[in-house]
Predict the 3D structure of the following.
Amino acid sequence: MIPYGRQNISQDDINAVIDVLKSDWLTQGPAVPAFENAIAEYCGAHYACAANSATSALHIACLALGVGEGDIVWTSPISFVASSNCALYCGAEVDFVDIELETGNMSVAALQEKLAIAKQNNRLPKAVIPVHLAGQSCDMQIIAKLAKQYNFKVIEDASHAIGAKYKDKPVGSCEYSDITVFSFHPVKIITSAEGGMAVTNSAELDKRMKRLRSHGITNHPEEMTEPSHGPWYYQQLELGFNYRMTDMQAALGLSQLKQLNNFVTVRNDIAKTYNHAFANSDIVHLTQSDNCYSSYHLYVVRLTRSGIAKHKSIITSMREQGIIAHLHYIPIHLQPYYQTLGFSEGDFPNAETYYKQAVTIPLYPTMTAYEQQLVTNILIGLL
Ligand SMILES: *Cc1c(COP(=O)(O)O)cnc(C)c1O
C-alpha cells in the first residue's frame, strides 16, 4: 500500500522523546520554549506560541486579535474545516472567498471584489485567514495591502507550509500578516504527533495567546490586578483553555525541525518528477507562482478534458490497486453543518469545480523512485 503521506521518525527523534520521559518534566518544562524559540528563529519571526494543535492555535489567534460575537471572518472554502471553525468558536460569523482554480488558493481578485461589496454593506471582515494550500503561499503582499486598505487582521493558516518560502522569506516571517499558524499533525511536513504553533512579531499578541492557551492565567506580577499574595499566587484574568503542548511533543518537534529543509528539498524533487511525468496528459498540477517555494505538503493534480468524468472512478481504482489517492478538500461550505448556517451549492463555483477535478497523489520523503513510477503509471493508465 502506498499512502498519500507518511511521517518520517528517526532514531534521533525517538531518543529526544525518551530523554524527556527520563527528565523532571513531561509538560511545562524546557522543551516547549526551546521548540518555540527554534521555530521563531527558523521563520525569522519574533515570537512563537506552541499549542496542542493547529486548531487550538487558530482559535487563540482569533481571540488574541479580538475576534468575537458580531464579527465576520473570511477564509478559503478549500481547506480543512479547522480554518473556519476557529472563528465560530469565538462566536463570530464565517464567510468564504472563492479560490483560484489554478492554485487552489484564495483568489485575491475575488477577495478584492468581495471587500468592495462588503464595505458598501458595512459587512467588512474583522479577520481574513488565507490558507497556503498544499504548501504554496497565497499572494500575501496583495492580501496585506488589502488588509491595510480595509482594516482587517490576517492569520495565515500555514498548516501545510512550514519550510515554504514567499518572496525569498520563510512562510511564518509574518511580514504580511499578524499571525501565522503551523500544524505538526503526523500527515504534515514535520510532526510533534499532535501540535501546532502560532508565530507573530507582536509581543502583545504572543503574550495574549500564551495566556489563553493556559486557562487565561498569569504568573506575572506586573499583569495582576493586586500585589501577589505569595509564591503560590496566580490570577485568572480571562477565560482561557488548556491548549498546552507537552514537552514530549515539543522534543519530537524540535528534533524533526532539524530535518525540515531536507524533507522539503526531497518533496520538491518528487514533485518535479511528477510534473515531468504528467506534462503531456489530461492532468494538470497546481501552478506554482515565481514568488513561491512550496513545501509540497501535498501533490495535487486536477483532471482535465475526458479525465473529469472519471474523477471518482480514478480515485477508487487507485485505492483498489493499493495507492491511497485522496481529495483535499471537500468545500467547507458544502459540509452539512455549514449548510445549516445558510451556505449551499453554487455559493463558491471555483471551489466546487475544483472538488470535481482534484486528486491528491502520494508524496512523502521516503517514497522510492519505484513507488513514484508505479503511482504515475497507474494514474496515467486510468485516464
Ligand atoms: C491539518 C490542518 C489544520 C488543523 O491542524 P491540527 O494540528 O490537526 O489541528 C488546520 N488547517 C489546515 C489547512 C490543515 O491542513
Observations:
- Residues 53-55, 79-80, 82-83, 131, 157, 159-160, 183, 185, 196 surround pyridoxal-5'-phosphate (CB under 6 Å).
